[in-house]
């Protein structure tokens, strides 16, 4: 493989998708984007905006990869639902696949809920601010974790602990409840309901939302949840992805993450890191880079804990972005985050 071809292969899935769409032209790209969710559009749009110096050989490599992938797929529109189910079961296992399929089906039938993903987080917060905490919890469980965290941070301090506790305690949502929620959001219910309970919420969903909160908000929220229900707080904390969980990254994933993190940010984050984690990161750098970072750590004076926590949060956000794009796999306490 040529150097430029290798560069194309090293790009993230969002970047390769962006290159492909840019080769299609405006109208064709717009038609493709219409069939994607808000999160995918935002991710690919950001990749488009950041692309530069894309060689002709890279473009050819991306197109060739796409063509080869399409040739292995089932005919468009023929048995698509069954094909999707089989692919997800093979990729994620039966339990997780059913959860993903449920969320896809919710999106098909819930126009109002889906529209929230395209709204500004502040607008969503204003829309649901006066609703019952259970309604707010269902909305947050439906949103992507980062958007849900933004919405949660804009709600009154007094309501946050109850809402996140209700997210953690959600054990499925009946179609009638989703129908009522769509009535609130859009004044109508789109599609026919089924008798199956939709899988939303749970302690993992609450932990994913908390992962995106600012450190000070996270600490205050979990302290209040623990006061109200210590056992529930413990279940959530067990699933929260923290900086020390980066120890679970394999070497390839660690190397990819370090390529995406600025040296200044890493320097501050490592001031509060465990020695074992530091050594793992040093091992996945070039010898020269590792020596320079060690020297900088020794020379760096005291850093406020809030700055260290903020830098670690930013690195964790980058890790989650890479995981969502399929570039790396991250995990902690026996469970993968994808």
Question: Top keywords for this entry?
Answer:
globular, about 350 residues, about 70% helix, disordered C terminus, Annexin V, domain 1, 3 domains, mainly alpha, two-stranded antiparallel ribbon
| Cα-to-Cα separation, first versus last residue | 29 Å
Low confidence ranges: 74-78, 106-110, 188-198, 332-338
Mean pLDDT across every amino acid position: 76
Q: Work out the helicity level.
A: 55-70%
How big a fraction of the residues is strand?
A: under 5%
Explain this structure to me?
- Helix content is 69%, strand content 2%.
- It has 21 helices and two strands.
- It has a two-stranded antiparallel ribbon.
- α6 packs across α7 and α11 (145-153) packs across α14.
- It is globular, with a radius of gyration of 22 Å.
- The chain starts with a helix and ends with a strand.
SSE arrangement:
Blueprint: H1 3-10, H2 13-24, H3 26-33, H4 38-50, H5 56-71, H6 80-92, H7 94-109, H8 111-116, H9 121-128, H10 133-142, H11 145-153, H12 160-169, H13 175-186, H14 203-211, H15 215-228, H16 230-239, H17 251-260, H18 263-270, H19 275-283, H20 287-299, H21 305-324, E1 330-332, E2 335-337
Antiparallel strand pairs: 1-2
Helix pairs in contact: 1-5, 2-4, 2-5, 6-7, 9-11, 10-11, 10-12, 11-14, 12-14, 12-15, 14-16, 15-16, 18-21
Summarize, please:
The chain is mainly alpha-helical. Helix content is 69%, strand content 2%. The protein contains 21 helices and 2 strands.
């Amino acid at each position: 493989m040529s150097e430029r071809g290798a560069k194309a292969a090293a790009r993230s899935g969002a970047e390769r998708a962006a290159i492909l769409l840019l080769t299609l032209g405006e109208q064709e790209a717009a038609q493709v984007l219409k069939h994607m969710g808000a999160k995918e559009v935002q991710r690919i749009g950001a990749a488009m905006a950041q692309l530069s110096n894309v060689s002709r050989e890279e473009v050819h490599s991306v197109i060739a990869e796409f063509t080869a992938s399409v040739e292995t797929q089932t005919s468009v529109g023929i048995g698509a639902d069954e094909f999707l189910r089989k692919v997800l079961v093979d990729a994620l296992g039966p339990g997780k696949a059913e959860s993903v399929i449920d969320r896809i089906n919710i999106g098909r039938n819930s126009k109002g809920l889906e529209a929230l993903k395209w709204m500004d987080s502040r607008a969503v917060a204003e829309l649901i601010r006066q609703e019952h905490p259970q309604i707010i919890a269902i909305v947050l469980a439906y949103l992507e974790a980062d958007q849900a965290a933004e919405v949660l941070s804009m709600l009154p301090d007094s309501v946050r602990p109850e809402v996140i506790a209700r997210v953690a305690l959600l054990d499925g949502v009946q179609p009638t409840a989703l129908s009522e929620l769509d009535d609130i959001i859009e004044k109508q219910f789109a599609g026919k309901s089924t008798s199956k309970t939709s899988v939303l919420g749970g302690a993992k969903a609450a932990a994913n939302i908390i992962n995106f909160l600012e450190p000070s908000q996270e600490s205050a929220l979990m302290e209040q949840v623990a006061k109200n229900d210590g056992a529930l707080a413990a279940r959530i904390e067990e699933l929260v992805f923290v900086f020390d969980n980066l120890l679970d990254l394999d070497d390839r994933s660690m190397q990819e993450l370090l390529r995406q993190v600025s040296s200044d940010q890493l320097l501050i984050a490592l001031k509060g890191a465990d020695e074992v984690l530091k050594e793992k990161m040093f091992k996945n750098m070039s010898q020269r880079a590792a020596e320079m970072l060690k020297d900088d750590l020794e020379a760096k004076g005291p850093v406020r804990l809030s700055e260290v926590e903020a830098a670690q949060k930013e690195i964790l956000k980058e890790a989650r972005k890479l995981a969502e794009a399929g570039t790396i796999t991250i995990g902690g306490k026996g469970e993968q985050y994808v």
